[in-house]
Amino acid sequence: MRIKTLVLSVFLATAFLSVEAQEAKKVQDQKAIKDMCGCFEVSFKYTETFSPEIDYEKKLDYTAYALEWAELIEDKEDEISIQHLLVINDTMVIKHWRQDWLFEDDSKFVYDTGNTWIFIDQDKDEVQGKWTQKVYQVDDSPRYSGTATWVHYDGKTYWENESNSPLPRREYTKRDDYNLMKRGNRQEITDEGWVHEQDNKKIVKQDDNNESLLVMEKGYNTYTRVEDEQCLAAKEWWSDNKKYWSKVRKIWDDIYTSNEVLELRKSVDGKPLYMHLTPEKAPSKKDIRTTIEKFIVKA
Amino acid sequence: MKWIYFLGLTYFFCFSFAESQVSIPNVLQQKLENAIASTFENGGLAISEVDYSQFDIQKKDELHIFRISQNENLIGYAYLSQAKSKHDVYDFVVLYDKELKIKKSKILIYRENYGRQVGSQRWLKQFIGMKPGETFNYGKDISAVSGATITASSMTKAVQNSLEDMKVFNQ
Lengths: 299, 171
What we know:
The complex is a heterodimer of chains A (about 300) and B (about 170).
Chain A: H1 2-34, E1 38-48, E2 62-75, E3 79-88, E4 92-103, E5 107-111, E6 116-121, H2 124-127, E7 131-136, E8 142-148, E9 151-153, E10 156-165, H3 169-172, E11 180-189, E12 193-205, E13 211-226, H4 232-257, E14 261-264, H5 273-276, H6 285-295, E15 296-298
Antiparallel strand pairs in A: 1-2, 1-13, 2-3, 3-4, 4-7, 5-6, 6-14, 7-8, 9-10, 10-11, 11-12, 12-13, 14-15
Chain B: H1 2-12, E1 14-15, H2 26-39, E2 45-49, E3 64-70, E4 73-84, E5 89-97, E6 102-109, H3 121-124, H4 149-166
Parallel strand pairs in B: 1-2
Antiparallel strand pairs in B: 2-3, 3-4, 4-5, 5-6
């Protein structure tokens, strides 16, 4: 009887400690994600590295600098959302990308060339303890998503994943020699802010799904934390516009949850979606939905 | 908008090889077309193979010389040939303007793992602007490439030979 009690006590204590450890890990994960919020000086650097074809001529390096405000717009236990806003010349604000983080999420979307995304279910076992990052464009249409574990080890905190994505905006209208980017993302929290390192593969995907590598690319984007006051214009802009973009996100969410495939037009009336989707041009929920639906080729 | 420009170029691109004795493999032909298109950024290019047997150029199966013209006006030449790497051969092209100055040289197909760095434009750009009659030496006028000595010296010699052959078009 005593042995049975002892075994049961050890089992319960182990289970309790395991749950405690998982909870502590999740809190660490949440903190890491939220550490990407705030005001940052950002440097974007990209350089092409290796190509399997000897005659490939590497394109010029890309470098850019910006001031960016990352606003925490959703803060739930299993769902954290960060909206990035660019601040130009201290006063002008441009809505930039958005990253949603979902704990043990059973869905994600995969880019499949031709401005088409496929929405897929994920097994519960595959996502256990993991966070799915879903990245959206400036108009809240999809970009890429991927699932992986946040790692806290040897004094480092990072998350890394490879996912298929469309061409980056810096090359979207300039290049047609590849049609898919296998984006290797590594987001590491540092003492100064965070670093978004990328090991990208520019891929030519044929109609028969055959893929060939055009060239690899290294991306090194540093986010150096500065005083929040420097991003005051973005904070105020978001305060004025957050209701509108909340409506936009809700409509997109309806579209995402009710479709398995989403193909979007690159432009309507010669303009991309973000130029149509403004509070002035599409003020009401109905206008927003109508505007977005004009861009949907297949859903 | 460079891509619109390029679109126009490819739309008007007319690739008309004259009947040649030895056919060029498809992959090599595609790479040659791409090299010409990216070097001569003009629309409406026409390319025709030159029968060089009428000139004082040694006949080689792997050597093809092309005239590049636009609206029937000559704008340059392409000299497509092969040279030796350590254990195999590689295909290269030297592209000339109508004054026979080198606009660009490219290695198109390379068949070994060693010596690939010679394909970098950072090294190949040393030949740009050279004209028939000019001489240069590997390691002196043309910088050496660590780990690719055989291919780099072979390419230097191949470009020198190309300049020699192209002299005939000066006449």
